[in-house]
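[job 4417] fold queue: 2 targets
>>> target A
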Amino acid sequence: MKTIGIIGGVAWPSTIVYYRTINEEVARRLGGNGLHCAKLVLAQTDFEEVERNQVLGNWERVGELLSVEANKLKAAGADFFIIACNTVHTAMPYIDAKTDLPYIHIVDPAAQTALSKGYKTVGLLGSGYTIKGTYFTGRLRERYGLNVLLPEREHRDNVHNALYKELARGIFLPKTRAKFKAAIEDLVKRGAETIILGCTEFGMLVNEEDCPVPLIDTTIAHARAAVDRALQEN
């Protein structure tokens, strides 16, 4: 079994989901007495500093902060790493430049899931950085040929504000869930065949019952992809 490296704390609530999902998947796949768990190492950065630089648009600094953690993972024996956050993948070019540890890009497992199920048009929910940027939408369109629908301004603002004021702090409120459901319903009305939860905290707030079409949770898809690689023979 290969050793998985996780950069967490961006923010911490979803890091818990990654840890649980990865270990549950390893136990399920390896069977036996049910005591199998993943070989992994976790490095956590301070999300406050990351978000401060995101607000400033200083993605190079974000990349520097995360590359330090990636290199800690390599030194600790990780064979590859994942970052438990969508938004900071904006800084992947800067991270790439400062570490040679292989990684799984968070967009790829979600896109591959959509294609495997035959979807051509996806609705994307994410932070304001994700919706306005290209690291996610550009990859979906250019690498995977998917049509991407984005939330309208009111829904976009509701989702972004909830993420940083509530979800990243471990706060999950029914009224916020209702706002997410409204954003999802609007995307579905506009033609989305599936909804991609493009933030690792979103799946802690909404689930399949809140969506009239299938959901693709990037957290779960990413974690399962990490287990796939960890259990590969080569």
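>>> target B
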Amino acid sequence: MSLPCTAIEPLSFRKALGHYASGITVITSHIDGEPVGFTCQSFYSVSMSPPLVSFSVKSSSYSYPGIRQAGRFAVNILSGEQVNISNQFARQGTDKWHGIKWRASPLGNPIIADSLDWLDCEIHAEHAAGDHLIVIGEVKALNLQEAAAAQPLLYFKGQYCNLTAHGAV
């Protein structure tokens, strides 16, 4: 059985995917003495052994070429208190690092202060997929922050939300 070949409208596709809640991360690296980074909600685990994670990024990204050149990146998992950081790193053409407190990870990647957690990775593979790249990283270091009361920054139906606002415990 085959389905009729119909075009999926990008706006409808985006709206349907908006029903899937996701966490928000900032992918960062350090190249030529400068930190680089961008907001990313398309992040997930791939493998436990070896420890692999993945994110997707637009092929036309201004930030990703520097990360590719560095060959490494950190995944900063944002807390519900970091909406402004998410917005700041989502913009192009501005100083994304203005006012951002960070320190270097074991691999030299920027770790954003007060993130829920971070993963320090080396690029393992990259695959073209439509208008995006799928980047797979091997986790070389991580740190679970002691922020038991902190909530993750979530994105659902085109807006930020938190677990308690929707009745979750």
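[job 4417] complete. Note on B: Residues 25 and 77 are 5 Å apart (CA to CA).
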